[in-house]
TrEMBL record:
Entry keyword annotation includes Zinc-finger: yes
Pathway(s): Protein modification; eIF5A hypusination
The organism's place on the tree of life at top rank: Eukaryota
Residue ranges annotated for the FLYWCH-type domain, each copy included: 4-64
Cofactor: NAD(+)
Xref: Pfam families: DS (PF01916), FLYWCH (PF04500)
UniProt keyword Zinc, yes or no: yes
Single annotated GO MF: deoxyhypusine synthase activity
Organism of this sequence: Sinanodonta woodiana (Chinese pond mussel)
Keywords from the UniProt entry: Hypusine biosynthesis, Metal-binding, NAD, Transferase, Zinc, Zinc-finger
Name recorded for this polypeptide: deoxyhypusine synthase
């Protein structure tokens, strides 16, 4: 049954199969109608046959269930220009020869059957929850209590996402530090110091690893603080992580912009590291400083029989720079070994290359260094890894800890994903499969850029506990 109604403003509406339509357009004997609900795309056509006889056909299905011919109590969804309808309807039976007559009856029957939402959908939406015993609720910082950065950072653990991982990283590093100052078990106390670098044994050996860009950035000062106060036991970095520290003692690095064009910078002799700028003259100053040291190192090799390794050369450069702003000056002062298995992959490698033409013969033994770093792990009572970035420095540190069947504590901070199978993106759980992290450990990966969070992590861990390192 189809019918028409007339609104108070005199507009005709079509009621058909429980849906209301408003007139859209008229073309000859055909009138096109659209659903009066704003959100619905339902469409219909009426064809005037003769007098009060007309055919009705739905041309586009509705996105809602039929509402009935009666006025809907909730008119908000309808395109109505008044608050009530005057029923001046006239009713007409479908023309006996209409091809839509049977379909109309079928659809009317179906519409009458769909009075409630499907039980499958209801059950899917209303799945019962199991209770969460002793669950931690999500809650952030309330700035109505004022600006308190220490309190703000403490709320990160309950904030969710990477903020929660930040809180977990703080806890993991604090566990490393606590373990470090616990008394060494009697069966682990050696009469002789077997550490190849001569450092005093503690209950937890902390490995700190970072990529070169962090030395280029302002995180260098944070790393320098850790070395100055003898807070870590072993450092692993790449070639740029060595040379950039010394270069900064000789000349400045400047803030630039990520969008600066490479061609323009090349013409000006400026090298870009992200949004940092390093004048090419800085490397010339580095060459002037390091070449005489390499001459002396070669002389000591030839005359005194000293067997140099990358870590021994870095130790010597830390001594020669004699600058408290340098990370490796403090590593030299506190006898913290610094390992760089790819020392030639950078400006320092360029210097070694040119020096080999000027004064050939200098040898750096990487085999002795791999034995030294692996021994740091093998001879440790417990180990902790703090790894900023990925690639070589990450794998070199983890592989050393494989030699003791895994680190006890681990924190990764990087932005790499594991979908490509790279070591940079490999999760801590993947490292467990290799034996690089112990099965009983609670490692943390913080998926973010280290300059954002590492200074804050140090503030919540090492810096708060500085007196313990005295």
């Amino acid at each position: 049954m189809a019918s028409f109604t007339l609104s108070q403003m005199g507009k005709t509406k079509l009621c058909f199969e429980g849906f209301q339509y408003v007139k859209n357009k008229v073309r000859g004997e055909k009138t096109y109608w659209r659903c009066s609900k704003r959100i619905c795309g339902g469409r219909a056509i009426t064809v005037d046959n003769a007098g009060e006889l007309f055919d009705v056909k739905t041309t586009k299905e509705h996105c809602h269930v039929p509402e009935g011919d009666e006025d809907d109590d909730d008119m908000d969804d309808y395109e109505s220009d008044d608050n009530f309808e005057m029923d001046v309807s006239f009713h007409s039976d479908m023309h006996q020869d209409s091809p839509f007559r049977d379909k109309l009856k079928e659809k009317t029957l179906m519409a009458n059957q769909v009075k409630e939402a499907p039980s499958l959908a209801v059950d899917a939406v209303h799945v019962k929850s199991n209770p969460i015993p002793d669950g931690v609720t999500v809650k952030g910082y309330d700035f109505n209590k004022g600006v308190d950065y220490e309190a703000l950072l403490k709320t990160y653990h309950r904030c969710g996402f990477q903020a929660t991982n930040f809180g977990k990283a703080v806890e993991e590093i604090n566990r490393m530090i606590t373990k470090k100052f616990e008394e060494i078990p009697a069966d682990k106390q050696d009469k002789l110091n077997l550490n190849p670098c001569g450092r005093e044994k503690t209950n937890c050996t902390i490995f700190l690893s970072y990529t070169s860009n962090l030395i280029s950035s302002g995180v260098r000062e944070v790393l320098c603080y850790l070395a100055q106060h003898n807070m870590v036991d072993c450092i692993v970095t790449s070639a740029g992580g060595i040379e950039e520290d010394f270069i900064k003692c000789l000349a400045n690095t400047y803030l630039g912009d990520f969008s600066l064009r490479g061609a323009d910078l090349r013409e000006k002799g400026l090298n870009r590291i992200g949004n940092l700028l390093v004048p090419n003259d800085n490397y010339c100053k580095f060459e002037d400083w390091v070449m005489p040291i390499l001459d002396q190192v070669l002389k000591e090799q030839n005359e005194e029989g000293i067997l140099w390794t990358p870590s021994k050369l870095i130790h010597r450069l830390g001594k020669e720079i004699n600058n408290p702003e340098s990370v490796y000056y403090w590593a030299y002062k506190n006898n913290i070994p610094v390992f760089c298995p790819a020392l030639t992959d950078g400006s320092l490698g360029d210097m070694l290359y040119f020096h080999s033409y000027k004064s050939p013969g200098l040898v750096l033994d990487i085999v002795e260094d791999i034995r030294r770093i692996n021994s740091q792990a093998v001879l440790a009572v417990n180990t902790g890894m703090i790894i900023l970035g990925g690639g070589l420095i990450k794998h070199h540190t983890c592989n050393a800890n494989l030699m003791r069947n895994g680190a006890d504590y681990s924190v990764y901070i990087n932005t790499a994903s594991e979908f490509d199978g790279s070591d940079s993106g490999a999760s801590p759980d993947e490292a467990v499969s290799w034996g690089k992290i112990k099965k009983t450990a609670t490692p943390v990966k913080l998926c973010t850029e280290a300059t954002l969070v590492f200074p804050l992590i140090v503030a919540e861990t090492f810096a708060k506990r500085e007196k313990e390192f005295k």
